[in-house]
Amino acid sequence: MSRTKVLQNFDQLAQDILESDNVQQMAVFVQHGSTTTLDHTIDVAHCALRLADLLHLRVDQRSLVRGGILHDYFLYDWHDSKQAPDRWHGFTHPRHALRNAERDFPDLTEIERDVIAHHMFPLNPKPPHTREGWLVSAADKICAVREFVVGYRFGHSKSRP
Description:
This protein is mainly α. The protein is built from seven helices and two strands, in the order H-H-E-E-H-H-H-H-H. It is globular, with a radius of gyration of 14 Å.
């Protein structure tokens, strides 16, 4: 699939979840460097979709994109110890993100739950159980390294003008 086709497909798959006011709140929190949490999660979801396409993997694209966008749906500034629920953000934020996602999106699939709950492998010891979970976990690391090292984003984000 061409990059243009992947981008169009991404827009269709992500539209409903990106219209949520709570998802849009992620635009006020910084994730890595100057990248917002919303930009980061959109970039991760897009990167994971692109990886699936490049590797010719059959995946549930809707669950991959939705889970990718919701993987960091913890809705707090993890840099601020007064906002963060604990000091173990790297270990506990998947649990907070999953709780918020289940509250706000009761139609979550098992794949989406797996993506959110296990994206921090190997920092968290339980690996993903789905291809989509593995792809988002890999994409999360790729995007985080780019954001930390060079400030580069994958190149597709709704929150940017």
